[in-house]
Amino acid sequence: MLASLAAFAITSGARLLTGARALWLGCTAQPVQRLYFANHSSHGDFVLLWASLPAELRRSTRPVAGADYWLTGSVRRYLIQRVFNAVLVDRQRASPDSNPLQPMLDALDRGDSLILFPEGTRNLEAGLLPFKSGLYHLARTRPGVELIPVWIANLNRVMPKGRALPLPLLCTLSFGAPLAYLEEEGKAAFLERARNALLALAPEEI
């Protein structure tokens, strides 16, 4: 009950503070298994994307987050595990034999959808950093999952680094067309195509 109330408060607050609008430009809000991949400029990115999904989709959609950040402190741990039901990944590679993608593969095998940021870290500059290889490996091993690019606009201006209170700017989330995995395509070509599909949704000034 407490986790449900916290989720309602967070999603309502996120939409209220940012005036977030979800623009389904290349797909519709259908209850199919998806991997949403988005640009990453703020710790609030996955919260806003998750909050922008209809409740039916949100129940089966899990953000991917770094365990090293979210498991430090009881409040963060409660939010990421109980409220957001996130898939936590070991970015530190504590064991050289561990596969950081395995928690995501397990979640996909259970039928969950995921929210992923293929830049791998927050990008405080314009444009996009080169994509990490995880998106490619997930697409290659689970080709039945739809890959949906999502451009999050203005959140880095609403919540700039070092500012305690948000600025009243409108945020938009543009959901693009599904990106198909092509068996004959190599990793570098796929990642560049995925990056270009995401950039195509960005405002013209990017």
Structural notes for this entry:
Helix content is 37%, strand content 17%. The protein has one domain (2-199): Glycerol-3-phosphate (1)-acyltransferase (3-Layer(aba) Sandwich), CATH 3.40.1130. Helix 1 (2-18) crosses helix 2. With 206 residues, it is α/β, with parallel strands linked by helices. It starts with a helix and ends in a 7-residue tail after the last helix. The radius of gyration is 16 Å and the shape is globular. The protein contains nine helices and seven strands; from the N terminus they run αββααβααβαβαβαβα.
CATH level 3 topology: Glycerol-3-phosphate (1)-acyltransferase
Strand fraction = 15-25%
Through-space gap between termini: 42 Å
Q: What is the SS-derived class? A: alpha/beta
CATH homology group: Glycerol-3-phosphate (1)-acyltransferase
CATH level-1 class: Alpha Beta
Total domains: 1
Q: Any guess at the CATH architecture?
A: 3-Layer(aba) Sandwich
**SSE order, one letter for each helix or strand:** HEEHHEHHEHEHEHEH
| Main sheet specs | 7 strands, mixed
Strand order of the largest sheet: 1-7-6-2-5-3-4
**Number of helices, counting only DSSP H or I runs of 4 residues or more:** 9
Average pLDDT figure:
86
State the helicity in percent bands: 25-40%
* DSSP strand count: 7
Rounded to an integer, what's the Rg over CA atoms? 16 Å
Shape: globular
Sequence stretches where pLDDT stays below 50 over 5 or more residues? none
